[in-house]
Each structure stands twice: as structure tokens, then as C-alpha cells.
Amino acid sequence: MRVAAMIAVVLLATPVGAQDAEWKPEGPVPRAADGKPDLSGVWWLGREPALEAGRVGAPRRAPATAPVVGSTFASLYTPDAMARMKTLSDKDDPSLHCIPSVGGPPQTNIFQLVQTPKLVVLLQETFHGFRLIPTEPGRTHSETQPPAYWGDSVGRWEGDTLVVDVTNFNDRNWIATQGIVSFHSDALHVTERYRRVAANAMEVEKTYDDPEVLVRPWVDTRMYRLAPFDQVMEAMCTGTETAALMEAAAKENYGKP
């Protein structure tokens, strides 16, 4: 077992409350050769999502769940979107079919950033995948990329903050996973702001703006910790049995009180 994994096991054996009480942002912000804050590293919320067996890979489990989108996001739906929401439930979650979410919680509990002078690579642990974020001055969105689950990202530096503009989404996934009804349209526009505030801490703010289904933008801000391991793990989505079981159960109970 690698050393980082052993450290992770020890930390996860500690009650989450104790971890929270002991942790605090500290240490100077490291800088890259070009003077920009170095965002490289594996980042997590200090705890794991409670993943259902068979839905996605289950890396580094822990007893506590991460914060979720919940009713806050849903409360911003337009009347038409609200009516649609009431017809959906966890059985309609696209992630049951191994379709990744846009990147809202709990999918983004653990991710890795690899920073270069012209590009930042975001490696996603859950739904094992990646995003390429070019940061060259003057870079614009691709005119040839088809609509995508994770959109098309372009980054720029505003002082010590990496601002990422994400557009060109398809409308086939949800903002979040694990049965949280959070659909969107292909007009979704996400603005992300990554700011390393200490050697072991990074603040990430995401603004979700979708004029076709939301009455106003929804802003989600989280403080991520530098993880005690140096690589994300492979967490492929391989099982869709849960979707079939939930669909069968829904049909069986249809019309019953």
C-alpha cells in the first residue's frame, strides 16, 4: 500500500468532527515559476461522498457525506422548470446510467489540478475524467467542439484568482449527482473562481447561470483542503444495475397508494 493511501486510511479512521476541529488554513501560498499561485495538487473536502454500490466507483469512503445542492438550487427554478422538477425523482438521475454531472457536489469532492504556464488540467476522481483549461491570454472558446457534458473551458488570471469560463454544455446531465434533481438547459453558463488562500487551502466559487430554467444565478462556494494523498484514484462508473432496479420498482409501485 502506498504511503499516501496509508495516511488517508489513518485520517479517515479519525472522526470527521475531530478532523474539522483540528484543520485550519495555514502556510504560505506556493508560487509557480511565472509568479502565479500554484494550484497544483489533489483537493478534497476532507470527507467522502456516500456512494451507492453499483452507481459509480467508490474511492476512499468515510462516514460523512459532503454538502449537496439540495433545495437551494431547485428553489431558483422558473415556474415551468419547477413543474418539470416535480415530475422527476432520484430514479431519473442521469448518473445512474454512468452519465457524469456538470460538476456540482458531491462529484467534485476530490479532484486534482496540474498547472502549467499555458494550461491547467483538472482530473476528476468520481466519473474518472478530465477537463483542459487553456489560460493563454486572448484564448477564446472553441468554435468546433460539440456540446459536452463538462462544457468548454477557458481560463484567465485575475490577480491571484484563476477565473474559468465554461460554456457549450449539452442538456443531458444534471448539475449534481446522487438523485439530486438539478437539470439544466444547453444555455447553462458556469463561471468558476479558484483562489489558493493558504498552502493547504483553496476556495472555489462556482456560479451557475441558466436563463432558460433559473430565475437568477446560483452560487456555490466551498473551501477545499490539500489532500493527504498525491494522486486521484481511478473511479470508473461501471455498473448501471441500480438504474434498472429503480425503474422496475417505480413501475411496480405505479398507481399504488
Structure commentary:
The longest helix is centred in the C-terminal third of the chain and has 13 residues, at 241-253. Strand 3 (119-124) and strand 4 form a beta hairpin. Helix content is 17%, strand content 25%. A nine-stranded antiparallel β-sheet has the order 4-3-2-1-9-8-7-6-5, with no helix packed on it. It has one domain (3-14, 30-253): Lipocalin (Beta Barrel). The chain is of the alpha+beta class. It has helices at 3-13, 16-22, 70-74, 79-85, 241-253; strands spanning 41-44, 110-115, 119-124, 129-134, 152-158, 161-167, 189-198, 201-209, 218-226. The N and C termini lie far apart (51 Å). It is globular. The protein has five helices and nine strands, in the order ααβααββββββββα.
Task: Provide a brief overview of the structure.
With 257 residues, the protein is α+β, with helices and mostly antiparallel strands. It has 5 helices and 9 strands.
Key descriptive features of the protein:
single chain, 257 residues, alpha+beta, Lipocalin, nine-stranded antiparallel sheet, 5 helices, 9 strands, disordered N terminus
Counted by DSSP, the helix tally is 5
Helix percent band: 10-25%
Shape: globular
- As residue ranges, the low-confidence spans are 1-18, 50-67
Instruction: Give the class-level CATH name.
Output: Mainly Beta
Tell me about the biggest sheet? 9 strands, antiparallel
